[in-house]
Design brief:
Number of domains: 1
Distance between the termini: 39 Å
Order of helices and strands: EEHHEEEEEHHEEHHHE
Structural class: alpha+beta
Largest sheet: 6 strands, antiparallel
Helix content: 25-40%
Strand content: 15-25%
CATH topology: Phosphatase 2c, domain 1
CATH superfamily: PPM-type phosphatase domain
Oligomer: single chain
CATH architecture: 4-Layer Sandwich
Shape: globular
Number of strands: 10
CATH class: Alpha Beta
Radius of gyration: 17 Å
């Protein structure tokens, strides 16, 4: 079962000129699938309806509404109890990339180098920050899939926001941990810089993650900045 949900629109939705989302659900039976799809569908709906102008407020309110709906459903139906989802969402306004993040799905900026913009809300990331674990060991740590923040698991959700100034050389990658658990950052960089067009780059990322074992759903949104 695919518990990831993805959305990509290069045309305006409400007051956002574009919108890109990756969500990675968790929970038994169909709960993870429901949580990620509910988050994407709710965000699309709320962004379209929002009268706000500030993209950070638009994204925050959309994620908070998704959190309310998932948490309510979890309390109403035992099959959905405890479900949740990560989400990473982005919108581009001129040369500014606005990002919202909950969980361990990631957004990278790739040019001559690769930079992880979002910060994982995960147990191993907390251990790294506290100095108890190095990043290489974290890739194979038995608790690497334990996330410390997710949409839907609590009545309130805390959303992180990031702002990046883009250049024409930048490529933007949003992905679930099905990709980053199989490929390290330098391998992702080599693949993105080594293929001819954006479609081949995305396909090769998924292909290589599957070649390495593909132990989880792999979702990728890849954007090339062609004009600012």
């Amino acid at each position: 079962m695919n518990q990831d949900s993805v959305f990509s629109s290069e045309v305006a939705i409400g007051n956002l000129p574009n919108l890109f989302i990756v969500a990675d659900g968790m929970g038994g039976h169909k709960a993870g699938d429901y949580a990620s799809k509910c988050t994407v569908d709710t965000m699309k709906e709320m962004v379209a309806r929002s009268l706000e102008k500030d993209p950070a407020i638009i994204l925050r309110e959309a994620i908070e509404e998704a959190n309310r709906r998932i948490h309510a459903k979890s309390g109403e139906d035992a099959e959905y109890e405890g479900m949740g989802t990560t989400v990473v969402a982005a919108t581009i306004l001129g040369n500014i990339l606005q990002i919202a993040n909950v969980g361990d799905s990631r957004l990278y900026i790739i040019n001559e180098e690769i930079t992880q913009v979002t910060k994982d809300h995960s147990l191993v990331e907390e251990m790294i920050r506290m100095g108890g674990l190095d990043r290489d060991a974290a890739r194979t740590h038995p608790d690497k899939n334990i996330i410390t923040r997710a949409v839907g698991v609590s009545e309130q959700v805390l959303v992180d926001f990031f702002t990046v100034e883009l250049t024409k050389q930048d490529t933007i990658l949003l992905c679930s941990d099905g990709l980053t658990n199989m490929l390290d950052d330098e391998e992702i960089l080599m693949i993105v810089r080594g293929q001819r067009d954006v479609v081949e780059k995305a396909q090769q990322l998924v292909h290589m993650a599957n070649e390495r074992g593909g132990r989880d759903n792999i979702s990728v949104v890849l954007l090339e900045v062609s004009e600012l």
